[in-house]
Design brief:
Structural class: mainly alpha
Shape: elongated
Strand content: under 5%
Number of domains: 2
Distance between the termini: 87 Å
Largest sheet: none
Radius of gyration: 24 Å
């Protein structure tokens, strides 16, 4: 009796795993990035490096360069909400940079 129950549970678990795996594959889109998107991603990583360096030095030019690089990445990816955030940071640090010069 126990063997029959174990076999039924194993069969049901395998069906569930198969269904779950199929569902997860349908949720993920498998596609290649275009050359512009790959370049934008690399520029974005460089920009994040400048933003991190700017936190350590509090140097406005580093923030301006960092926000500009990340702005390139998010605009290529068409993530418009992040474009608005990057423009806000770029504007704030540009104003700060101009005030520090004058």
């Amino acid at each position: 009796m126990e063997d029959g129950l174990n076999i039924k549970m194993t069969v049901n678990m395998n069906r569930f795993k198969s269904w779950w795996r199929h569902l997860l594959k349908q949720m993920v889109r498998d596609r290649r990035l275009s050359p512009a998107e790959r370049l934008g991603t690399r520029i974005g990583y460089m920009g994040v490096g400048f933003l991190i360096a700017g936190q350590w030095t509090l140097s406005p030019p580093m923030y301006v360069i960092g926000f500009t690089c990340v702005l390139v990445q998010v605009s290529i990816r068409r993530q418009w909400n992040l474009v608005a955030l990057q423009l806000n940071g770029l504007l704030a640090w540009t104003v700060h940079f101009i005030k520090s010069i004058l």
